[in-house]
Amino acid sequence: MRSWLRTNTMGGTAAVSALLTLCGLSQDAVAQDEGACCIAGLGIITCEVMTAEDCAANEGEFQGVGETCPNLCNGPGADGACCVIFGNSAACFLDDPDGCAAQGGTYGGDGSSCDEIECLPTPEPGGACCLFVDIPGSSGSFCLDSSATQCAFLGGEYQGDNTTCEETVCESEAPQPIIDWSDPPKDNPFLADIQPFRDVLDTGNGAALTDGIGGGSGDMPPDQVRYHPITVAFTAAPSPAPAPENITVTCVGGAAGMGCPGVTSVDDMGAAVYEITLDHVIPPGACMTIAFNGSAAGQQLQYQSLPGDVGMDGTVNTADLLALVMAINNGQAALASNLPRYDVNRSGGVSTQDLLRIIQLLNGVNAPVGMSGMTVATCP
Ligand SMILES: [Ca+2]
Ligand SMILES: [Ca+2]
């Protein structure tokens, strides 16, 4: 049988062969109203027997009723046989010289057919090829016997000539998860790229965590500024999964004697999203760093706490009173997006009550420590 397109494979992979098997050719008997149809696409011209109407619908060039396929598509764009060799696979198809060259093929000459030219693969030694496939839910490595060329084409790691999958264990090359997003956010929305998110709102009377980052109590209306628990989303589930024993919390700076929070619980919300509850507040003035086992190196959340620092300059003083007055006067304080900055008493709105709360914080009233003049530690 004269084949219009032929592939030759010597130990090639199914995947690569599939890439080079460019079409399924119909060599069936030509029905009364059918004939060869040349269809251009994907850089080559394929030929199929069909009716003139179907050919037009496929934007092909009908060759006439009763015409069969092989070598009929030799018009512009298909002047001769083109042989493309790819490692242990070879494919022959009809193309013009430029088209053939563009695909790295060898042109057989005008009017040549695939039966006339020799189009055989270059024998290449084979070996094991480790491939990593990242499919949600079933990512992993697998092994494929292939040539070095084919392995490189598939993005795999060739294990060497004459290695076999039987004796090869492909190491998992899963990219380590990184933090996708978090709430509170990693970066300070009010001072982007300068410092981590800083909680400048009231965290209550002592170390008990009713409000503030990582708190677990649920008695505050949802429209009020609260950060409990911390929500963190990774690009993939870390392994080991985030759990109290797989999370490290460290603090620098902060009010003496309050200690760094610990992780009380981690809820797996699915889709690599986790909710982290802490056991007490970040000490005022501290920077807290949360690091995760099983994530890429350096992945961490950092949060600062400095109740009353609505001016976000790193120190609590009367300038913050003025900053809040200004924000109330110019309307900034009325914006919902600015509540995390100005709603000092976490009431859900900004009013003179928040000014009073700053004054109380400065004086240490109903606060774990007097905040006047307190500065926040720089995160490591
Ligand atoms: Ca300040
Ligand atoms: Ca308020």
Describe the structure.
The protein has 380 residues and is α+β, with helices and mostly antiparallel strands. It folds into three domains: 6-110, no CATH class; 126-167, no CATH class; 179-363, no CATH class. The protein is built from seven helices and 18 strands. Strands 1-6-5-7 form a four-stranded antiparallel beta sheet. The structure holds calcium ion (2 copies). The site of one calcium ion has 8 residues, from helix 7.
- Topology order in helix (H) and strand (E) letters: EHEEHEEEHEEEHEEEEEEEEEHHH
Question: Ligands in the structure?
Answer: calcium ion
> Order of strands across the biggest sheet?
1-6-5-7
The number of strands is 18
Beta-strand fraction estimate:
25-35%
List the helices and strands and how they pair.
Elements: E1 6-9, H1 14-20, E2 34-41, E3 44-51, H2 52-57, E4 61-65, E5 80-86, E6 89-95, H3 97-102, E7 106-110, E8 126-133, E9 140-147, H4 148-153, E10 157-161, E11 179-183, E12 197-199, E13 230-234, E14 247-253, E15 263-270, E16 273-278, E17 286-292, E18 300-305, H5 318-329, H6 339-342, H7 352-363
Parallel strand pairs: 12-18
Antiparallel strand pairs: 1-6, 2-3, 2-4, 5-6, 5-7, 8-9, 8-10, 11-13, 13-16, 14-17, 15-16, 17-18
Helix pairs in contact: 5-7
The structure holds calcium ion (2 copies).
Structure summarized in a few sentences:
By secondary structure, this protein is of the alpha+beta class. It has seven helices and 18 strands.
Features:
380 residues; alpha+beta; 3 domains; four-stranded antiparallel sheet; 7 helices; 14% helix; elongated; disordered N terminus; binds calcium ion
